[in-house]
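Appendix C: a fully annotated inverse folding record. The material below is reproduced so that readers can follow the format used throughout the book. The structure is listed first as tokens, followed by the designed sequence.
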């Protein structure tokens, strides 16, 4: 972190002998002094409200566009230390989970707070596996899309459509109902994704095979052709499983915030998940993995990298897959993804774009423009190279992000619902528009 003193510091007195976890504020407009309690390194924005000049004033608010320094909730699900490049789900390091766990086990951990024992894991796997089928009517929605419809548009629509098949999902404060919708959402996301992919190819849908693992079945629904029994390549199956672990949750990112905000109106979890999926679709968020590949294709050759970097530094382009609101160090997930890439290349052949990606990284990690802004590769920088090598079209990359993130979204949604401090999200604003003015008749305008 920067050692220079922030401008707002007016004197650097040594802390008093008796430390008090409070903030002393003087409102220089009135000379009044206030003492705000500090808890968990935060002050409550509502504690600013009493600070007024006139009694009829609304009172002070915090102003924080895009929530760059605002905690919207307290949570026990995921911990990130952006400076140290640390990511933990329920206290377990992402490195250890990627090495020793499976996605379906990690999803249980994220949702229920503890690693499952054998019977819990068997029960959890059984229920998710037996909720992979989707209502046959959903195929009619998919048939309505153009052949070149983006699969994220199809996924957002069909996830929302699930809410029309399961009206019991509105019973959001019934734990049994939430658990059933959780089975359905985690079980059906791969099916919806695979069906969208098959639709775009004009190929028949492949139904789930309950003998296969979560990722094995997903590969089956995507790639099975004439064989009676699909046998997933174990290296690709494990690579996808690890990628799903890495993408399972990431605390209060844009799509989780959408899940919490939309869910706070007490809508059903399918519509909230559709909103979260829509947020993830953006190229600044989960759509970045697709944007990275398009960028690497646009660069085209390692010799063109310096010219592209020059355009980035001129502010004409973003180096997609670089930078992060929280990580001001190497995204720990990107390190693991880079390792997986070579395991997939060993099976599928080396993706020639990797050389361009490595050159972008090499230059960026040395160049002061990126170093001074603490821009490092994030989770999206290398994942697209793997997905492309596995045979996925670029448009499927954000879909491959949405599937595993569904467990994180549901966990964040349920934590919000059960948090006594949470209510419907309704931020304030700073109004800078017109004051009261009278209506001007049409013939007197202009
Ligand atoms: C994900 O939040 C999460 O946890 C998200 C995620 C998850 O798991 O849910 O981790 C997944 O979304 C990863 C991020 C994927 N997006 C991209 O790779 C798109 C490219 N990255 C940028 O758009 C950007 O870095 C963001 C959106 C990721 C973060 O933006 P911030 O925190 O708002 O940072 P900023 O835009 O204020 O940038 C600070 C400075 C600016 O320069 P100055 O105005 O100070 O001169 O850094 C520059 C930016 O222009 N900058 C970049 C850059 N990212 C930031 N310059 C070039 N290329 C980039 N990628």
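Designed amino acids, in order:
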């Amino acid at each position: 972190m920067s050692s220079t003193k922030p401008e707002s510091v007016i004197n650097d007195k040594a802390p008093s002998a008796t430390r008090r976890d409070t903030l002393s504020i003087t409102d220089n407009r009135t000379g009044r002094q206030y003492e705000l309690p500090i808890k968990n390194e935060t002050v409550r924005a509502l504690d600013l409200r009493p600070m007024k000049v006139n009694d009829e004033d609304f009172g002070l608010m915090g102003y924080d566009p895009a929530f760059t320094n605002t905690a919207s909730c307290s949570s026990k699900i995921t911990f990130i230390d952006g400076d140290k490049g640390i990511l933990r789900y329920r206290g377990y390091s992402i490195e250890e989970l990627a090495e020793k766990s499976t996605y379906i086990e990690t999803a249980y951990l994220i949702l229920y707070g503890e690693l499952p024992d054998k019977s819990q894991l068997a029960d959890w796997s059984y229920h998710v596996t037996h909720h992979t089928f989707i209502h046959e009517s959903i195929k009619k929605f998919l048939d309505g899309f153009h052949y070149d419809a983006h699969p994220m548009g199809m996924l957002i629509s069909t996830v929302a459509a699930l809410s029309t098949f399961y009206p019991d999902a509105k019973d959001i404060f019934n734990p049994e109902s939430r658990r059933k919708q959780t089975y359905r959402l985690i079980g059906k996301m791969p099916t919806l994704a695979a069906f969208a992919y098959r639709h775009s190819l004009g190929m028949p849908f492949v139904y789930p095979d309950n003998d296969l693992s979560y990722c094995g079945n997903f590969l089956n629904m995507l790639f099975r052709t004439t064989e009676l029994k699909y046998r997933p390549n174990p290296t690709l199956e494990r690579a996808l499983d690890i990628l799903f672990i890495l993408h399972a949750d990431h605390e209060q990112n844009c799509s989780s915030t959408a899940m919490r905000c939309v869910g706070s109106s007490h809508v059903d979890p399918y519509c909230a998940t559709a909103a979260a999926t829509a947020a993830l679709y953006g190229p600044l968020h989960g759509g970045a993995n697709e944007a990275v590949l398009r960028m690497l294709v646009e660069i085209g050759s390692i010799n063109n990298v310096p010219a592209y970097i020059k355009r980035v530094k001129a502010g004409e382009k973003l180096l997609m897959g670089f930078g992060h609101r929280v990580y001001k160090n190497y995204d720990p997930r990107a390190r693991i993804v880079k390792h997986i890439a070579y395991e997939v290349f060993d099976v599928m052949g080396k993706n020639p774009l990797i050389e361009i990606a490595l050159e972008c990284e090499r230059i960026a990690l040395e160049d002061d423009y990126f170093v001074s802004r603490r821009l490092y590769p994030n989770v999206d920088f290398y994942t697209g190279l793997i997905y492309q090598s596995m045979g996925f079209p670029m448009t499927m990359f954000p879909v491959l992000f949405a599937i595993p993130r569904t467990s994180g979204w549901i966990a964040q949604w349920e934590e919000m619902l059960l948090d006594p401090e949470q209510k419907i999200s309704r931020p304030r604003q700073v109004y800078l528009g017109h004051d009261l003015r009278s209506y001007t008749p049409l013939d007197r305008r202009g």
